[in-house]
Design goal:
Layout: E1 2-3, E2 6-7, H1 10-15, H2 18-32, H3 40-61, H4 63-90, H5 96-108, E3 115-117, E4 120-122, H6 132-157, E5 169-172, E6 182-183, H7 197-207, H8 211-216, H9 218-222, H10 271-277, H11 287-299, E7 302-306, H12 312-324
Antiparallel strand pairs: 1-2, 2-3, 3-4, 5-7, 6-7
């Protein structure tokens, strides 16, 4: 079957629908770190159709085509790649969207596709096992490993030589509310772990404040007595969320909670109150992390942040490389 100058089997042509979808989710991952679960449902349906279609063709061909070109690669894809994706999600190595993307790829691309474009046959290399989803995964890991190197080169070129130059870069405080990632700062200096910026946005929205409000009068907002009687919905911390910013209209309504000796209750910034009031854990943030992050952002004009790892970007790049070249790790040596 030929479509738009590309010659391939119908199952393989059907699978190409994944390319623009994965390009779109990669862009979404960069901009919002959020991908709707609904995007994976159509791809799952396409994967099932292509899998059954290809399986029937292989069964009719029989022999080597059925056992080695279809059955073994499919068994590895569904029996190895799927558990890997699930386990990495379970242990926190992947986000939910990353794991779903790999699950969909395992179903969509269990075997190596083959496309003929003019005199070119793509992918240019294959692997002994022939499990295409595993090739996409290893390609994505290799691409992901290049990110720290790119960050180091970028920072070194700018003269920013620090212990965190391979995982982050500096941003102005007023860019923080629209930046994804995690603080790499304490009041004492650089740190390899700090406040999740999604959790920061949740906190500010819960209080109806902006980061500029906090910087303008940190002493006021550090006092837990100024917490609102009716906090706003914290959202999920997404940059694009629509929220109410009332500037803390009810902040004056409270009086300080006191202990038996009459001193103010010790909950700077109302961090414990915030985490106790919301559903969930605010991305695992502790009261101490929230307080320290707020202190840093109230004082410093420029802070280092780690953008995190939007893994759907390496997955898309890994898929594109796999479709054109093949396996970066194994294909180079065979």
């Amino acid at each position: 079957m030929t479509f738009a100058g590309v010659s391939a089997t119908m199952p393989d042509l059907l699978r190409l629908v994944a390319v623009p979808v994965f390009a779109w989710v990669a862009v979404r991952d960069i901009k919002t770190r959020r991908v709707s679960s609904g995007v994976w449902i159509p791809l799952t349906v396409v994967g099932l159709i292509a899998l059954v279609w290809e399986g029937r063709r292989a069964w009719e061909a029989g022999g080597f085509a059925w056992s080695h070109e279809f059955l073994i690669p499919t068994a590895v894809s569904l029996g190895f790649v799927v558990p890997i994706a699930y386990l990495f999600w379970w242990f926190g190595g992947f986000g939910g969207a990353d794991a779903k993307a790999l699950l969909v790829l395992a179903l969509l691309f269990p075997t190596f596709p083959q496309y003929t474009l003019g005199s070119w046959t793509l992918p240019m290399t294959t692997t002994p096992i022939g499990t295409f989803s595993f090739t996409v995964l290893t390609n994505a890991v290799i691409v992901g490993m290049a990110i720290p190197l790119a960050l180091a080169v970028r920072n070194a070129a700018a003269g920013r030589i620090t212990s965190v130059m391979v995982i982050g870069w500096p941003v102005s405080w007023d860019d923080v509310p629209e930046t994804h990632g995690r603080l790499l700062e304490t009041l004492e200096g650089r740190s390899r772990g700090g406040l999740d910026l999604d959790a920061l946005r949740m906190y500010l929205r819960w209080r109806g404040l902006s980061l500029a409000d906090v910087r303008e009068d940190p002493n006021r907002y550090r006092d837990p007595a100024t917490l609102p009687d009716e906090p706003n919905p914290p959202t999920d911390g997404a940059v694009t969320a629509t929220v109410r910013s009332d500037g803390g209209a009810t902040l004056e309504a409270n009086t300080p909670d006191t202990t038996d000796d009459g001193s103010s209750d010790a909950d700077p910034w109302g961090a414990e109150a915030f985490l106790a009031d919301i559903e969930g854990t605010a991305y695992g943030t502790t009261p101490a992390e929230l307080r320290e992050g707020l202190e840093v952002l109230a004082e410093k004009d420029t802070v280092w942040i780690s953008p995190g790892a939007p893994f759907l970007v390496p997955v898309f790049v890994g898929l594109a490389i796999a479709l054109v070249y093949g396996d970066l790790l194994i294909g180079t040596f065979i």
